[in-house]
Amino acid sequence: MDNLEVIARFKIRPGQLDGFKAQVAEILRLTREKDTHTLRCDSFINHDGTDCEVHEMFPNEQGLIEHKMNTTEATETLFRDYASDHRSTIYGEVSHDFIKMGEARMLERPAKLLKSKIKVFDGEGTERGAILQDNVVGPKQFALVGATGDRIGSIDGENWISFSPSTTGPATRSGGSRRIGRAS
Fold this sequence. Notes:
This protein has a domain at 4-110 and 169-182: Alpha-Beta Plaits (2-Layer Sandwich). Helices cover 33% and strands 33% of the residues. It has helices at residues 17-34, 61-81, 96-108, 110-114, 170-173, and strands spanning 4-12, 40-45, 51-58, 83-91, 117-121, 127-133, 141-146, 151-156, 178-182. The strands form two sheets. The chain has a five-stranded antiparallel beta sheet, covered by helices on one side. α1 packs antiparallel against α2 (61-81).
């Protein structure tokens, strides 16, 4: 079986670049100290500090599982406090059991995986509220929530089609990003 390569992309929250870099450094430290099968773990950040791309490589799915187990707590902190809009792609062959494990994990937490949440920030990076998807089936309905969590309105859609667009700015592809960390 060929190596598994994981490419992860996410946004850095406004005003959180320094904390983000420190948390990525912690994840890389854990990777160096605890992982036994990680072949590559590089983190890149774009020129304006708003996007990050991570490249990881493992000899097999057990290496990926080990890495996730060793870095789960630090990764949860990263996304709770410093990053959002996470998307990952795994390249390579995986077993049927690995796929079933991933599907089971998705069924354990459907609300987090199937509904959208968009945080709203002002020009200075202060969170002012959110747009929360209310439902998954039927016409899309979104709650408009203020900074204190109170519902202040809604967006109701008819005949909307759900999709997950993924765009990459020119800095990510043209060499405008710079490495912020490496595990090896």
